[in-house]
Amino acid sequence: MQLDHDNAIPLHVQLKAILEKQIADGKLNGQIPTERDFMEYYNVSRSTVREAVNLLVREGILEKRHGSGTFVSIKPIHQWLGNLTSTTELIRQMGMKPGAKLIDAYKMTPEAYIQEKTDFNDAFFIKRVRYADDIPIGVESHYYPLDIGEAIVKYDLNDTTLYEIEENELGILFAEASQVIGIDIIPDEEALHLNIPRMSHVLAAERVIKDYQGSTVEFEKAYYRSDMFNFQINLSRKFG
Q1: What pLDDT band is residue 80 in, cutting at 50, 70 and 90?
Q2: Cβ 123 vs Cβ 110: under 8 Å
Q3: Within a 13 Å sphere around the CA of 201, how many CA atoms are in the beta-carbon half?
């Protein structure tokens, strides 16, 4: 991918986006190339390279080590489609430290489209920021039937996995989930929580979870930083 010198988007912003994608795809890891390498490959000035790199350093994606150079400081978190896995489990599988911060928890009336997906006329709402190695990677909003939500909120939601509470403490047996993933512009409030610019494009995911009775036990709407989260699926070709 090359820079578009005729584009109205500043070159350092374009370069930052390219480097973010390379990191998310695993193509750029460990120590990154030198400023000179980037200047020659992308045909840009030293100041353009420095601005792009400094933005990534401020976001915690790159880190500068005195006397050694600049290194990728994070590993993208891969989610395998087809598995009902919690964010905490995914982060641990990547060898990183999971974390959470409770933002909101209250009874509410969901939006009409959520009611249609869940049959929740009333719901208990829980919003948390999710962290990997103390870097904010996503904002997750959960909608529960009132009895489930009121039971969950009694636990320390800054230091536990919601799935573990539901399964191990409340005895809920997950049967299946449907998930829709797309690209969206992050709402301003969520951008602040993730420490990313307003109007950033992020991964948006909606998940509906049902139990073995076919009842919806959770609806989740989440925004994840696209530079730190990607989804992977295995496909097989059937013959005959």
Answers
A1: low
A2: yes
A3: 6
